[in-house]
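Internal ticket - ligand job 169, FE2/S2 (inorganic) cluster:
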Amino acid sequence: MNPSAHDVGQLLRARNGAAQVSLLSLLSEIQERYHYLPHNALVLLSETLDLPLTQIYSVATFYNAFSLKPRGVHLVRVCMGTACHVRGAPRMLDETLGLLGVEPGQTSKDGLFTVECVNCLGACALGPVVVLDGEYHHHMTPAKLRKLVASVREAEEGAPAHAEAAVHC
Ligand code: FES
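stdout (structure tokens):
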């Protein structure tokens, strides 16, 4: 789905005008809607908010929550920090990648999952930690992970087909 002036305009109107709009909240909404920040959406934001495009890109690239490249519908973050590493994160990462048929930073062919490796998710005592769409799953095991992925796939059953795979890092 490509953003249009209409889409961005709707977001702005929903916030009662550009003056009160928080750039961060708009970027979050665009990210949520498209699973990344398409360039043309950022151009439209720049024009509408009368902010330099460089300023918008500077904010967009500062926060890890934003992506300038397409992501899958669901984001899987596997912690590879030291605490998780010693508790089995490498096995968890291998399991995740094998299950979804991707490399780190890639999106599954069905467009459902993007896998990212991160250095620490701030829950070191609970490792290995996997975060799916912002929800923490601790003391992960390959069996728990398979169940989690299967439950997402089940929930998505019947949903329209998603985009082809894309490489992100
Ligand atoms: S090292 Fe994994 S949460 Fe900190």
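Auto-summary: The first strand starts at residue 74 and ends at 79. The radius of gyration is 18 Å.
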